[in-house]
Amino acid sequence: MPLRSRSLRRLDVGELIRSARLTASLTQAALAAAVGTTQSAVSRWEAGGDVARIDTLAAVLAACGVAADLSFRGHDDVDRAQIREHLALTPQQRLQAQANAARWRQAMRPVTVHG
Q: What pTM, to 2 d.p., does this model score?
């Protein structure tokens, strides 16, 4: 699932889990084993029948190779620590960070199944 501003307003956790799992080429059973749960739990999360706890979601994403930096703040808050970190980067590091973000966005594009 691409994380565009539209998506961030209402994050579909099930679709996020499904997209991350498919991007990592994992079956539901393999993902379940990696995070210590059952295949049926993964299926329920992806279908929207249940929602993974936030710590479980972080573990699921990590098992799929996605680093989740989850922070909760007011809608108009500014993350000054992130701004300071970005300003401390060299120009080369900033370019590398942009390239990494572009690769991640490409990898998170929805998978289209033709049937």
A: 0.55
